[in-house]
Specification:
There is one protein chain. This protein is α+β, with helices and mostly antiparallel strands. It has one domain. The chain is 13% helix and 30% strand. The chain contains one helix and six strands, in the order E-E-E-E-E-E-H. It has a two-stranded antiparallel sheet with strand order 1-2. The chain starts with 15 loop residues before the first strand and ends in a 6-residue tail after the last helix.
Length: 76
């Protein structure tokens, strides 16, 4: 039996997520995902930007802009 001060170990490694509108679902547990543009590791607690259409995560708004420009899509 665990008491309230014990914690489960953090899953290590890269997570696999399903990106939805305004939220994401964890498919495979992990502690981070990689930015599709920069390759930077993004801790799940810090993940703020992703594409539902492309199913990609982004580290910064600039990375989102870069990806949209690469695909020839204007930003809203």
């Amino acid at each position: 039996m665990m008491n309230r001060f014990e914690r489960f170990p953090e899953p290590l490694g890269e997570a696999e997520l399903r990106y939805l509108d305004g939220e994401f679902r964890i498919v495979r547990p992990g502690s981070f995902v990689r930015c599709a543009v920069t390759g930077q590791a993004i801790p799940l607690d810090d993940l703020r930007y992703w594409s539902v259409d492309l199913q990609e995560a982004y580290a910064t708004p600039e990375a989102v802009l870069t990806r949209m420009q690469e695909r020839g899509r204007p930003m809203p």
